[in-house]
Design brief:
single chain; 135 residues
């Protein structure tokens, strides 16, 4: 929201909404969309940043974002280029599997298991489909 008019419109829309307003058909559509998104997005990272800071300097959310975008749009070449431009200490390859981040992750992501896979795909060019994914 960037204007008071937008704030007023959003408040009015919220006042009209209520629990149980969606039809069974609408709820089923939401569930299908969520399932399809989960299929396309291998790592359930919400970019909350609770895993940060990494004691070794890895930018965990950025690595997940690059990887998920590569998977969702079948554009790993782009993800590989962006990964190569990252500072080395921020790349997935810098992860030392200390698991400190996993204790903080509200999604329960096995971050230390994902980081080597991400480096294989984005840093070494391994085929994503040939990788054994964590979880």
């Amino acid at each position: 929201m960037s204007a008071m008019d937008q704030v007023k419109q959003n408040v009015a829309a919220a006042e009209r909404s209520n629990i149980g307003m969606l039809t069974e058909e609408a709820l089923a559509l939401v569930e299908r969309v969520r399932d399809k998104y989960d299929e396309l997005c291998p790592v359930p990272c919400t970019q909350c940043g609770y895993c940060m800071p990494c004691p070794n300097g890895v930018n965990i959310p950025r690595n997940f974002s690059l990887f998920n975008t590569g998977a969702m749009y079948d554009k790993f070449a782009d993800a590989q280029q962006r990964y190569a431009r990252m500072e080395e200490e921020k790349r997935a390859s810098a992860c030392i599997q200390c698991r400190e981040c996993e204790e903080k992750c509200p999604q329960g992501i096995e971050i230390s298991e994902w980081m080597p896979v991400m480096h294989e795909v984005m840093g070494e060019g391994r085929d994503y489909q040939a990788c054994t994914l964590p979880g």
